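Need tokens for this chain, all 211 residues.
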Amino acid sequence: MEVYELAEYTDPTASDVDGPTNASVGGLTLLDRVLQQWRVRKALTHIPLGASVCDIGTYDGALFAVAGDRISSGSIGIDPDLMPPRSVRTGIRFIKGHFPDVLGESERFQAITALAVLEHIPVLSLHRLAQAVHDRLEPNGVFVATCPHPNVDRVLDVLTAVRLVRGQSIHQHYGLHPQTAAEIFCRSLVLERNERFQLGFNRLLVFRRSP
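Here are the structure tokens for all 211 residues:
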């Protein structure tokens, strides 16, 4: 397990840990970034001010870069393919690994996020993830996720072919339908919001752990 504060993170292949300055730095195209920022800003509207957050699949910490001081400095970003984090407030930890395996036994959060993550997880594993999210949320805590419709993969294939998006891990999509994701997480959490966004191609799911 590798754990980093932003100031401690070093990557000999990266020339700028403050984030990309053109369309392809960090492996993401300009359109990738636009879609990423859209997801992040949509999710942040459902995260309480000052909340401690665990961001599953944080990639380069974009959620924390956008959130700034709206979230607790004790928050954590987790990703098995962690990239050099973007500029964020001090105190945010980035852990290379898998949720919840890399967390301390007593660590709990007021909010957990999984943006563009669920579709990369087999359905059987989603049941385990749902229970882990429940167990790691504080009472009344929120879980915010995004999940595209499986048909979006066809659009992504075209955009990848013309290099408008990177197509990161499209081969790992398991055809998850947003309604299936909602049903799985409803077994341990209460669904508060299920709405389309990004021109109807994506779905925002907001759940809450009972008090």
